[in-house]
Amino acid sequence: MTYHHGDLRRTLLDAAAASIAQSGVAKLSLRALAKDANVSNAAPTYHFGDKAGLLTALAAEGFELLAKAVSLPSHQGLVDMGVSYVDFALTHPSHFLVMFQPSLLRDGDDDLNLAQQHARAALEAGVRDARDHGPDDQSSSRAAWSIVHGFATLVLSGAITVADPLAEARRVAAHLDIDQLE
């Protein structure tokens, strides 16, 4: 086995996401990821240090992907942004899972903190824009985020099943009466 690999960091992040989706985060093993990537057991440690480092990198990537998803110029308002949030969660379930479990992550990681700030700013900007550029209101942002996050979490956990999760997400997000969030 060798440390030389085309883009081992990317390969390990993709493999970790696939492993989490299949078996859950508790069964994620750096040794198994190294074996699957056909590299030495030490190779993942070189890139991430440990399992928490790998999960932190996956969460940071997830927050950046989320920021991009909810910042799409095609959004026509809060409902579109909410649907994009749910779409992100359903498209990247492993990222979504680890992003919101701080006990799995390295506290104080600069890349993670920056990515979280980007995602939070994108979500707050979407709510502010829906309010016609009114003043920032963290309660409004949190209410909107809670609704779509809760729906995404319920779908991913299997607590609710719907034939078309994005169509249902649109109906759920339509309940966000931004005037009532003030």
UniProtKB/TrEMBL annotation:
PROSITE patterns: HTH_TETR_2. Coiled coil: none annotated. Residues 29-48 bind DNA. InterPro entries: Homeodomain-like_sf (IPR009057), HTH-type_TetR-like_transc_reg (IPR050109), HTH_TetR (IPR001647), MT1864/Rv1816-like_C (IPR025996), Tet_transcr_reg_TetR-rel_C_sf (IPR036271). GO terms for molecular function: DNA-binding transcription factor activity; transcription cis-regulatory region binding. Residues 6-66 form the HTH tetR-type domain. Keywords: DNA-binding, Transcription, Transcription regulation. PANTHER family: HTH-TYPE TRANSCRIPTIONAL REGULATOR RUTR (PTHR30055), TETR-FAMILY REGULATORY PROTEIN (PTHR30055:SF220). This is TetR family transcriptional regulator. It comes from Ancrocorticia populi.
